Structures
1.
Amino acid sequence: MLKIDKLCKQYNNQPVLNQVSLDMGPKISVIIGLNGSGKSTLLKVVAGIVEPDSGTVYIDRQDITALDPEERKIGYVPQHPALFNHLTALENMRYCLKNGRGSEKILDRYVEMLGLKDILTKKPRTLSGGFKSRVSLVRSLASQPKVMLLDEPLSDIDVAVKEKLLPEFKKVLKDMGIPTLYVTHDPWEASLLGDNFYAMVKGKITEINSADDAFDIIKASYNIKSSVS
Ligand SMILES: Nc1ncnc2c1ncn2[C@@H]1O[C@H](COP(=O)(O)OP(=O)(O)OP(=O)(O)O)[C@@H](O)[C@H]1O
Ligand SMILES: [Mg+2]
């Protein structure tokens, strides 16, 4: 379980996270928000890369707010996932296993499920964006995290490839069965992946029934009027 309780963060006296609270079981929760709404900051605070001004993060009821990122057992795929170019795809995915952490079994299972067997010996620069994303996902999952955070990991991917990848990601994340927090600015992407949906506006989040409702909340908050009547 992941519980986020009243997280606040300001930059230059501007609130970027404003009392963000979330209580998540083993589902895929998607936060939809415009550029600059605070999505990446929220994930960085949960991952331990950015310190909050106030608020608490719990995993399985343990307060982890003061723990270093590597002690949190969180898998984090950043906005522009970077792979090690001098290592093969397999070496990239086995990276955390080297230090005695993670699970070879999980790695093998998701290599199979995501059709990565034929690219294991390839170097990242020879792989398409879709394969790089799959490798980044497996690399994080192989560390056996208790929680997964994904920050628009498919933002550099073509729409057609995304349409194929998102159901694959969903299958793998559901199979892993841990709380997953995915952020995106794209309600369509959210609808293909999520179980639960939230809209994020200026550092505040609101639960919504479906990904399609995100734009209504966002437009109302920013007072944006549709040009189509
Ligand atoms: N290290 C920082 N120092 C100062 N301001 C920051 C810092 N990081 C983020 N911000 C500001 O906080 C706000 C939220 O940024 P954040 O990156 O969390 O937004 P986002 O929703 O992820 O946006 P995007 O969709 O563009 O990725 C922005 O106004 C940004 O300029
Ligand atoms: Mg971001």
Note: The chain has a mean pLDDT of 93.
2.
Amino acid sequence: MPDDLVVQINPSRVAMIGTDQKPARCCSLEGEVGSGTRCSIYEQRSSVCRDFESSWSQGEVNVDCDAARAAFGLAPLEQPPYEFELPISA
Ligand code: SF4
């Protein structure tokens, strides 16, 4: 993780700049929330980001996903009518 993208939050941990604010907006998030966004450091993102699952990506609700969407006035994701898998990049 590039040092210029993080802020020290305690002696042993850092957070992405912007995620320690209200409302949170990671400095690596590009685009407009609710219209289309992408992570500009997707391949280098932290383990916290890698471990976060959007609701229904593993067949169940993630209440943290719903809360993050609600913070931006977005409704929870609806359960898709079919099973799907996220694409795996080569
Ligand atoms: S996935 Fe990317 S944009 Fe989202 S919080 Fe992590 S670093 Fe930021």
Note: Helices lie at 47-51, 63-71.
